[in-house]
Amino acid sequence: MHDDVDRVLFSRDAIAARVAELGQAIADDLDALADHPTEVMLVPVLTGSMVFVADLIRHLPHKLRIGVMSVSSYPGRSIESKGALIRGGLPDDLAGKHVLIVDDILDTGQTLTLVRDIIAEQRPAEVRTCVLLRKDREQARSFPVDYVGFDIPDEFVVGYGLDYNDYYRNLPDIVTLRTEALR
Fold first, then answer.
1. DSSP assignment of the chain, as one string?
2. Catalytic center residues
3. Which of 21, 31, 46, 80 lies 20 to 30 angstroms, CA to CA, from 179?
């Protein structure tokens, strides 16, 4: 499987360092709120964000609950977003809570818009967004997001939870694949 890797964009060490920085920034912002939340609800968008959120929560010294959502936008062998579609899950007790949506990659903003709008219907105290990666494309650059791990070129990437046809999630680095692997 590692023979399919074209190049490494971010090593596991760079990712670990950046996730720790994100965790600190999120914790500092939560601590600075006037109503200092006693509980934070994380809503990871599965399946791509599972590795990221597992590492991120270790850097958040708050009382946390996790309510996962499953959203699909890159079905099967697709390397272009086909639009966000809710596949399952949504916490139903978000009223008055501080919510942090955690997603793997921001490219069109469709997934975050869909999830954020559904969560807003429950009237949380606040909704913040955190993405591991933001692609260098107009839709992503103009989309409001509170925390960004890395900005990346507009390329298809895998590893650290991101997949192609449900493979490569277990790679510890964020990489591009050789053209032959995308067939």
1. -GGGEEEEEE-HHHHHHHHHHHHHHHHHHHHHSTT--S-EEEEEEETTTHHHHHHHGGG--S-EEE--EEEESS-TT-SS----EEEE---S--TT-EEEEEEEEESSSHHHHHHHHHHHTT--SEEEEEEEEEESSHHHHHS--SEEEEEE-S---BBTTB-BTTBSTT-SSEEEE-GGGG-
2. 107
3. 46
